[in-house]
Design brief:
This protein has 594 residues and is an alpha+beta fold. The protein is built from 16 helices and 36 strands. The longest helix has 26 residues, at 40-65. It starts with a helix and ends in a 6-residue tail after the last strand. The relative contact order is 0.06. It comes from Actinoplanes sichuanensis.
Length: 594
């Protein structure tokens, strides 16, 4: 008789009836009915449900893997960006880079045995976050292992190249750039030669590849071939250089005609290779303007710059005026075409407005608003004496001089040679320790007055030399002589404002004033006591026009301190020291004792 266990499913399978040993009769006790065979429809239902469950599970996994813009399992610089939206991934990566010292630390580079450290900020070296996130967003998820995406690195190749050349200096072998030069009107070919050196593109690739490795980056040197070949240089000689100087080029305008001679063309025609060795023929407008300046002056109307003048002892600005001129920069391509033509060697030019180089607004920005210093020295002889006339001549030349911030004023450069042609006369000068007549004598007094005006304006002393002998019309130590061209007086405008120089004179005095904006409350001087005092010797010289008699002056050494005052206290001190020789007592006539 079968038991219940004989009919129960085993491991989820339908039960199987065991073979009977004997058929029961109706008189036997009733037994449980046999389990029915499973139907085909039920089996299909179970299979379908199972498939649905598997598909549902797979779908959930897919949704998880593709959540966000960046697939799961993607890392950048060890940072897991999987499942993040682009904006979130970019923000996360930027925050990570901000805390990574490698992104701001100096990049160590090596170039042919030379080492240098470059700041990433100085060469535009960065991780391109957006491009990196874009790269991370592409591809399939990595469910069982990380997919590493390398960061996208960007660098400014030109900044890197400049920084490398500055840091390591000359490396490799210089390339000989091609060129066509002129000896007179004869062109000469300069053939190129390859070199070995830094190449911006190769350097950039090396730095990008090695930046975040933590190791020094080896920047290679590559063979550099000039972009223009020797054959092309020879061709330029025949097709550009020779035709250009074969005949003049003519510019026509409404105000007249300008002829550019072959010599001026040769001076302005540029046939020199650039840093890559590429020759691009061109006319240099600045060189051309200098070569034909007299002819241009007859055609053009020069613009007048705005300028300072003095009215009632105070500066005021006078507006400039526009001029009319030929724009040689715009005309240069046409001039090059004409110069290389056999017959069409005339170019028509229109005169265009030429604005002043200096406007009223430019001068107003300089802050020339108040008198910041003034200094006066006195002389004898009245304005009729040659010495006084020399002082006034120099004062007239300097009046109205404008010294821009950061610029240096040179008295010799401003006036040029002070000779007879410039209106200067003979007056006593010190030559080799002796007083004798010389052209421009007395200008040292103007120099001393100008020096003191700049001194008390607090401007930087660049060059000055006190006299060999001390004259009591000058302040001791802080005075200056001058002699063309060997001795000069210079000061630098080290203030942020313009400095305008004004001069004035009377029959017995010369005054120099500086107009600007005050930087210091005041500038004063303290002197030490004189020391090492020496008496003058007596020297007899032959009588004549070269002998000037004197009563003699003592010699001594003395110090002077320039004190800069601000907010009621001295904030800076400058020391000046000078040793004066005793001026001999010169006697004219009799036997020479010198």
């Amino acid at each position: 008789m079968a038991t219940a266990s004989d009919r129960q499913p085993i491991d989820g399978q339908p039960a199987v009836r065991l073979p009977q040993q004997a058929s029961p009769t109706h008189d036997d006790l009733e037994s449980p009915p046999a389990a029915p065979q499973p139907r085909r429809g039920r089996r299909l239902l179970i299979a379908a449900l199972t498939a649905v469950a598997v598909a549902a599970a797979a779908g959930g996994t897919a949704r998880w893997a593709f959540t966000g813009d960046v697939p799961r399992g993607v890392t950048v610089l060890g940072l897991d960006l999987g499942g993040l939206a682009r904006a979130e991934a970019a923000a996360t990566l930027r925050a990570h880079l901000a805390g990574d010292p490698r992104s701001t630390a100096a990049v160590q580079v090596r170039v042919e045995g030379k080492s240098a450290a470059l700041s990433p900020a100085d060469i535009g070296l960065v991780v391109d976050v957006d491009a990196t996130v874009d790269a991370a967003s592409r591809g399939r998820p990595a469910l069982f292992r990380d997919r590493v995406v390398e960061p996208v690195i960007a660098v400014d190749a030109d900044l890197l190249d400049a920084a490398l050349r500055k840091a390591v200096g000359a490396v490799g072998t210089a390339m000989r750039a091609p060129a066509v030069t002129f000896t007179g009107l004869t062109p000469k070919a300069v053939h190129p030669k390859p070199g070995r050196g830094l190449d911006p593109r190769s350097s950039a690739e090396a730095v990008k590849a090695g930046w975040l490795s933590g190791e020094p980056v080896a920047v290679p040197l590559v063979e550099l071939h000039p972009a223009t070949t020797a054959e092309q240089v020879d061709q330029l000689v025949e097709t550009v250089a020779r035709p250009a100087v074969a005949a003049p080029v003519t510019i026509t305008s409404e105000r007249g005609t300008l002829t550019i001679p072959p010599a001026a063309i040769a001076k302005s025609l540029v046939l020199t290779g650039d840093r890559t060795g590429l020759i691009e023929p061109r006319i240099d407008p600045k060189r051309l303007r200098a070569a034909v300046a007299p002819g241009l002056a007859e055609i053009e109307v020069a613009a007048a710059d705005a300028k300072f003048t003095f009215t009632g002892g105070k500066p005021r600005i006078v507006a400039g005026a526009a001029g009319r001129g030929i724009d040689l920069t715009a005309l240069a391509p046409q001039l090059l075409t004409a110069a290389t033509s056999a017959d069409a060697r005339t170019v028509k030019a229109a005169l265009t407005a030429a604005e002043p180089a200096t406007s009223v607004a430019d001068l107003e920005k300089l802050g020339v608003t108040e008198k910041v210093s003034t200094f006066t020295t006195r002389f004898t002889g009245g304005l009729s004496s040659s010495r006084s006339q020399n002082i006034v001549t120099a004062a007239k030349q300097v009046r109205g001089a404008l010294v821009l911030p950061g610029k240096t004023f040179s008295l010799n450069k401003h006036t040029g040679e002070r000779g007879y042609a410039q209106g200067y006369k003979d007056a006593p000068v010190i030559v080799g320790g002796h007083l004798q007549p010389g052209v421009g004598g007395g200008v040292s007094q103007f120099t001393t007055t100008l020096f003191n005006a700049s001194y008390y304006a607090g401007l930087q002393d660049v060059e000055h030399k006190p006299h060999s002998y001390y004259f009591d019309r000058y302040p001791a130590v802080i005075e200056s002589t001058i002699f063309w061209p060997d001795l000069d007086f210079k000061f630098k405008n080290d203030s942020p404002y313009g400095v305008l120089i004004d001069t004035a004179w009377t029959s017995d005095s010369i005054t120099v004033s500086m107009w600007s904006t005050k930087v210091w409350d005041k500038v004063t001087t303290e002197w030490s006591a004189r020391r090492n005092i020496t008496s003058p010797p007596t020297i007899t010289k032959p009588d004549g026009p070269d002998c000037i008699s004197t009563s003699g002056l003592i010699g001594f050494t003395q110090d002077a301190w320039r004190l800069f005052h601000s907010d009621g206290k001295v904030v800076k001190r400058e020391k000046f020291t000078w040793k004066y020789d005793p001026e001999p007592r010169f006697i004219c006539g009799g036997a020479t004792t010198d």
